[in-house]
Amino acid sequence: MDDRRSLIEAAFADRGRLPEAADAVRSVIADLDRGALRVAEPVDDDWVVNAWVKQAILLYFGIAEMAVLEAGPFEYYDKIPPKRGLAEAGVRVVPPGVARYGSHLEPGVVLMPGYVNIGARVGAGSMVDTWATVGSCAQIGRDVHLAGGVGIGGVLEPPSGRPVIIEDGAFVGSRCIVVEGVRVGREAVLGANVVLTASTPIIDVTGAEEVVYRGQVPPRAVVVPGTRPKAFPAGTYHLPCALIIGERSAKTDRKTSLNEALRDFSVAV
Fold first, then answer.
1. 3-state secondary structure of 150
2. What residues contact residue 197 under an 8 Å CB cut-off, 6+ apart?
3. pLDDT (mean) for 103-124
4. Residue 51: which of 126, 137, 125 has the closest Cα?
5. Coil, strand, or helix at residue 261?
6. Residue 64, helix vs strand vs coil
7. Which pLDDT tens digit goes with each residue over 182-226?
8. Rounded to whole angstroms, what are the CA distances from 220 to 163, 206, 207?
């Protein structure tokens, strides 16, 4: 067990002990920033959450000091500066894109004018497109495309809560929202405007009978927005859901335009 863990867990339970854990907290954030630690990691076919690392992030807000930050003509006032050393890390960030210190971007990541928050990790070769946001602690795999305006939610509390996970090779279409620890399986495709929360019904309609998932999208599934009727005292209304309408074909691998994977099912990008 990491020697820092007991200090951080004790300080999280009793904030009076935060001064003795301060150095451990700072070193954990530094390790997150350089990719030596992560909030959650894949184990076999599941993900394990390192709750004590999330506790360190929450404690860090208590010891970091507000400061004026300047970037060219722009001024900010915050506790956490943006990442540095992007060129050495092999990461492209297009102004005014921002990745916060304590996040990690693997080599080959392209961050357009979007945002990556503390604790998040973005895998090699992935693109965070214009005005897409990656919330705190979210885990974005390799060769993922987060299209324009995508909102990936942050999950800092409770510390044991699973963050949003977008696995390798997935494509998340324009204006999608994925929050509350939803897991999107490898190479899955979300069409434009899909909204996934922990309670959103994700309905596989490809067979004779529907199969309903919640909180996870199966690998290689092609998903579009949908609605389903629900009766209320005032009448029947249609509530949002997501529909699995097929599986990504072998021809639409990661080297193929992901738009083609959507065109196979006449899905908007």
1. coil
2. 179, 180, 182
3. 98
4. 137
5. helix
6. coil
7. 999 999 999 999 999 999 999 999 999 999 999 999 999 999 999
8. 20, 13, 16
- H or E element, residue 52: helix 51-63
Give pLDDT, residue 72.
84
Spacing of C-alpha 155 from chain mean position: 9
Domain range summary for the chain, segments of one domain joined by +: 3-251
Q: Give the length of the chain.
A: 269
Nearest to 26 by CA among 50, 44, 4, 43: 4
Banded pLDDT at 1 (limits 50, 70, 90): low
Q: Is the pLDDT of residue 238 over 80?
A: yes
Separation of alpha carbons 26 and 17, rounded Å: 15
242 in helix, strand or coil? Answer: strand
pLDDT score, position 106: 98
Range 3-251 classified under CATH 3.20.20.220: no
- Residue 81: asked if its preceding bond is cis (omega within 30°), the reply is no
